[in-house]
Specification:
This protein is of the alpha/beta class. It has 12 helices and 11 strands. The strands form 3 sheets. It has a 6-stranded parallel β-sheet, sandwiched between helices. The protein is elongated.
Length: 348
């Protein structure tokens, strides 16, 4: 029988790694009183419940107004909070679609989700009320942004498309216009082609610039009945114009929004910011990664302004990432893929 070699006393003893413990299993029970809300809560053919199950890896069973959830402890808690918030939204008369459900699932990792959206636990609800809908945060990044929209003088909103930067700004502007806290809503955008040459467009000046401003019109019509939009456009209460039309003006008692601000030059941005007047609010939206300024060697006015003004009293900056994209989930994954490619690309 071979002898065992003596143990080297100088060698440290490391016990074999313990097997990873499985996540603790849990079960939660929920009951909903208003039977009329169960169909939109569960979705057609229980589509909303299936969406939550697939995203959080839980099992959800429903019978009558009772729902039970089984799975890992943390995911069960998230699914419970999502379902509660969905029910509260429906009870308040708000819409609930697959995009809203997806947003709530994404936000459920935030400890403030329930308090911020429903007003529980002594937290004030964050929402924007317009004539057509009540808008609540749909991503973690939208929560501080919506707070800034309600209190700051000038807000820079930076991030990729689909994060709600411009839409939420238009919604806040419409809300303040309707309540009378501002007298005018001014929407502007630089008329720069996104990597294309559109040539000489036919029509008058309005017809020439309208294609560039279409996203602003879309957000406006989504927040206000069409007849009101047309009436306020005709009266001048709402003005939609390219940034060049802002020169020489002082915009008082107004809510002013500049979209696609990454395509402004430094001179244009300085001109626009200095239009700010008494009792006004200004929101500057853009994606610093998507600069289409002709020539390619001119610094974006947006990047320059944020560099100079961040930290100045009365000026706030909100930064969004691909995680804040509130369109179809695949859009967020596309943004992440492109951003990753840009970071890995060699300088040159």
């Amino acid at each position: 029988m071979a002898r065992k070699p003596p143990r080297d006393a100088s060698a440290s003893f490391s016990p074999p790694p313990a097997p990873q413990r499985e996540a603790r299993r849990a079960r939660a029970e929920l009951s909903f009183d208003n039977q009329a809300l169960l169909v939109p809560l569960f979705g057609q053919f229980d589509a909303n419940l299936v969406q939550i199950e697939n995203r959080l890896g839980v099992y959800i069973g429903a019978r009558g107004g009772a729902v039970h959830i089984e799975g890992a402890e943390e995911e069960v808690a998230r699914a419970r909070d999502v379902l509660r918030t969905m029910y509260d939204r429906l009870a308040q008369g708000q819409d609930l679609d697959s995009g809203a459900v997806e947003a709530l699932i994404a936000m459920s990792v935030e400890p403030t989700l329930e308090g911020i959206i429903t007003g529980r636990h002594d937290a004030p609800p964050v929402m924007i009320r317009t004539r057509r809908k009540t808008i609540v945060p749909r991503s973690p990044g939208q929560i501080p942004y919506m707070m800034q929209l309600a209190r700051e003088d000038i807000i820079f909103a930076l991030g990729p498309a689909g994060t709600g930067k411009t839409y939420l700004a238009v919604a806040q502007a419409v809300s303040q216009l309707v309540t009378g806290s501002v007298q005018r809503l001014i929407l502007s955008r630089p008329a720069v082609e996104a990597g294309e040459r559109l040539g000489f467009l036919p029509g008058d000046m309005k017809e020439k610039v309208d294609p560039y401003l279409r996203p602003l019109y879309d957000a406006l019509y989504d927040c206000m009945p069409p007849e009101q939009v047309e009436r306020r456009l005709a009266s001048g209460e709402i003005e939609i114009a390219p940034i060049a039309f802002m020169r020489g003006r002082t915009l008082a008692e107004s809510f002013i929004i500049l979209d696609e601000a990454q395509n402004t030059t430094r001179e244009q941005m300085k001109m626009f910011l200095t239009r700010f007047g008494q009792n006004s609010r200004m929101v500057v939206c853009g994606d610093p990664r998507q600069v289409d300024i002709p020539g390619g060697d001119r610094m974006s006015g947006l990047a320059d302004a944020v560099e100079r003004l961040e930290g100045v009293q009365g000026i706030a900056v909100s930064r969004f990432t691909a995680k804040d994209v509130v369109r179809h989930p695949i859009v967020g994954r596309i943004v992440e893929a492109y951003e990753g490619s840009a970071q890995e690309a060699p300088d040159g």
